[in-house]
Amino acid sequence: MGEVWKALDLRLEREVALKILKDADDLRRRALIGEAKLACQLNHPNIAHIYDAGEVDGLPYIAMELVEGRTLRSLVGPPMEAADLHALARQAASALWHAHQKGIVHRDIKPENLLLTEDGQLKILDFGIARRGGDDLPVGATSHHTTLVERTAPGYSQGTPAYMSPEQANGQALTGQSDQFSLGVVLYELATGTHPFLRASLVDTLYAVTRDEPRPLSEVRPDLPRTLQDAIHRLVSKRPQDRFPNLQTLWGGLTEDIPTATVRHLKPASRLRRPLVLGAGAAVLLVAGGLGGAWLLRRGERTALGEARRASTMDFTQGRRVVAVLPLEQLQPNPDQAWLSNSFADAMAFGLVRRDDLLVVDRLRVVEAMHQLGDAPGRAPRSLGALGRELKADTLILGSYQVVGGQVRMNVRVVEARSGNTQRQFQLDRPLADQLKLEDELQQRLPRELGLEGPAPAPGSQAKDPRTRELYTKAVEVLTEGNQDSIELAHNLLASAIKIEPNYAPARAEYAWTLAEFGVTKALSQGRFEEGQALLRQARQAAQEALALDPSAPNSYRALGSILLRLGDLEGASRMALQAVRLDPADHKAYDVLADVFAGLDGEENHQAARRYFEKALSLFPDDWQAHHRYGVLLQNDGDLPPALLHADRAIALRPAAEYAYVTAADALLWMGRPAEAEARLRAGLREVPNSNVLRSLLAVAAWDQGDRAEVVADVKALAGAWPPEHSSAVLLAGLGRAAAGDGPGALALFEAFRQRTLASDLAAKKHNEKRVLSVNLYFMARAAARLGAAAEAQQLVDLADRLHPGKRRVAQQDPIFR
């Protein structure tokens, strides 16, 4: 409904949250301003105060208290402890009772509008859209109810109707009892981790609000005090008269069970930075950005990050039967039909991966293992026993097919991996035109052939056109190559698949992945941050669309997790990636995302969690070059330079065209004082990726370390214009160029000016990738300053580098250049 800005009240010299309303006709604008002016009279410690409301040059505004903290949405998940729930309920009841006494009904109580400050104080936001109980909009105005049902309002949120009272859902006049119901829903959700009424569609949700009863808390949370259980159930009574006469009664009734309750576990560590969350509901991100806030990162027990950190010690694969599906052998080679080998194998894997009693080995891991044993994917393995041992599999599924006269003739075998003995075997003979029906039949039949109980889980998203499956299968195959050209080709293949079938979720999920890769490789790495963020936002939308089409697809959660990580939403990233792991514990890429989340955070416990996740990923896929590379980056930033170099070199051996693995190896060697070896790695990388500006820029650094000033000048000249002048890479090169030309003071002045500009910028608003690039380049500036004899300036640059991406101080302690 508007935009929110952090603003300064010049008269009273205080910061406020300024909500500017938009797209409102005269009638609606007058109503909103009038309602906000009513809310100005509220004065309660648990209500975010509204200071003023009015109109300037036809633009309506509401000025509110600026509050630091996080909304209760971030606490929904693991059931909340009784003491914490009790304290929140009492604070909310006290605040709403204060409003109801003045005849003001909030009308939109939900987790997003309930905020917890750093000291555990609850603040209710957005009384600016409240109005006096029983009042209704003038004739001709759009009611809250019809707006939601007809889905005509910009910014419509599926979550809001799930917190409506039955009378609100039915468009009736509202009283304070309506806020009671909404509060009860929030408390129930916090108590159980499950929403009592949210359903798959808007109509079903509204039906559940008006008719369905929630599951008794005595069954779900028997540990809650009986008084608290009864209070929540009374709040969510369908009839207003069955709820509390007023919330003062509720507040008084909650004094018996836990008299000393405080929201103790929800307080953040005071030494951590905190974001601003403004009193304006869904518009918060316009000011706060996508980062989510650093105070949240160690709160531990209530957040998705806390849950994911604890999960790093768990073994999601334990107790599962390990199954590997091999690409089928094509008996009569035909390049036009070779893609069917992977398509059939994927179809069988899709039918198994959704089961919680199996662990299905990633297809790429199967292919890599076959290569290691000298087997060719799509051909019968020479030793099933050796392949089973390499994959640590209990069961292998393999087979063959041929197309004869428009018919697909297929043979499928279920093999005991250790012995190589065939346990089950079946044949299928179907028209090639019925390929998709054949794949569906494979998904349904294979679990029975494996002796699994229960029906096969229904596929979440099925292709309807064989061409869609062909394009998707080929794109996934191309993506395994991992270079920019392959990503671009895969992107185009997936775009074509989506054009044929917009509702095919797997294609949308992988399409989102390619958009995210473009955002990093084509934009962020070149300093085009706005372009990179735009691509990542497109990727996020595509991943969300994939999830909407198939909420049970692990790759959609993993893709969205990776994208949210790059957008700086660490809470969302960890939540999505952990869900991907739960759905598919063999998804090594999801473990990579979780590892990256914690690798980017400060603190030993976070880095230990990152290491555990990297180890999990590598145990599932030892030849995952990306995991080796990023693990190397983590070790490098932690100051463990020798193992960092080993992992980077392993990534290079696995993927010679992996540009940034050369960067990691060269950085480690430079920081260990081995510039000649770093130069050798960089030149090897340039042979593989000749147009890499990043590798060429590091050549200038290596040349500077070796005293080759002519090479520095030549490299700097060759890279002129590669980055915008204000980019940290451009500043580093310009400084090295000046120093190599004999202008040391000029280089130091350039570095200091950049340091000052960086300090003056909003460091908290910078995205994770931007911080990492800045940190590395600032560290190289520090090294250059140290060689020029400017020890104090070098230390200041190291300190800023460490602030942006912690670990640089540890690196500097080992770097010979600082001795």
What does this structure look like?
The chain is of the alpha+beta class and 819 residues long. Among the domains are: 2-290, Transferase(Phosphotransferase), domain 1 (Orthogonal Bundle); 321-456, 3-Layer(aba) Sandwich (Rossmann fold). Helices cover 52% and strands 11% of the residues. It has 34 helices and 16 strands. The strands form four sheets. Strands 11, 12, 13, 14, 15 and 16 form a six-stranded mixed sheet that branches. Strands 1, 2, 3, 4 and 10 form a five-stranded antiparallel sheet that branches. A three-stranded antiparallel sheet has the order 5-7-8, covered by helices on one side. The longest helix has 21 residues, at 529-549. The two termini are 58 Å apart. Keywords: ATP-binding, Kinase, Membrane, Nucleotide-binding, Serine/threonine-protein kinase, TPR repeat, Transferase, Transmembrane, Transmembrane helix. Residues 1-258 form the Protein kinase domain. InterPro entries: Kinase-like_dom_sf, Prot_kinase_dom, Ser/Thr_kinase_AS, TPR-like_helical_dom_sf, TPR_rpt.
Q: Determine Rg (CA atoms, Å).
A: 30 Å
Low-confidence stretches: 130-159, 256-302
* Principal-axes shape call: globular
β-strand amount: 5-15%
The first-to-last residue Cα distance is: 58 Å
Q: Helical region count?
A: 34
Overall structural class, as computed from helix and strand content, comes to: alpha+beta
Helix content: 40-55%
CATH class of the domain at 2-290: Mainly Alpha
CATH topology of the domain at 2-290: Transferase(Phosphotransferase), domain 1
Report the sheet with the most strands, covering strand number, pairing sense and barrel closure.
6 strands, mixed
Q: How many strand units?
A: 16
Taking all residues together, what is the mean pLDDT?
82
Under the CATH scheme, the architecture of the domain at 2-290 is: Orthogonal Bundle
CATH superfamily of the domain at 2-290: Transferase(Phosphotransferase) domain 1
Pfam family, one: Pkinase
Region (Disordered): 448-467
Protein name: Serine/threonine protein kinase
GO molecular function, one term: protein serine/threonine kinase activity
